[in-house]
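DM from R.C. (forwarded with permission)

"hey, sorry to bug you on a friday — could you get me a structure for this? deadline for the figure draft is monday and I only need the backbone to look sensible"
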Amino acid sequence: MTPALAALVTRARRRMRRHRVVAAGAPALAAAGGLGLAWSVASRLVLLPDLDALVTALLLGAVAVAAALAALVRIPAVWAAMAADRWLGTRDQFATAAELSAGALSGVGARQVADAEEAAGRV
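My reply, with the result:
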């Protein structure tokens, strides 16, 4: 992959990773809140050990683990290039170049990669 295209793909991966963390964190936080509320209600109705701080720490730890797992999932270069195309409205220019750079380049493919490199340099 060319330098400007690789930099663009890296930035798109970072942005996608942040989106994944937020998307995974919201349901995890809602589930942890629901479980925390259920623990609180159950501890009011039934005699349970005084473990509120431990339960809270475990639930927040579970949310942190869910967010970390979402951030650690590898995003392929072609997917990041597709996302960059969608965000920048370049009509699959970067995704095509990312796919073509994985193999041997011919005349038309080399021109497409060069055009994508130029466009990525302008971004």
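R.C.: lifesaver. The first helix runs from residue 3 to 45.
me: no worries. The mean pLDDT is 92.
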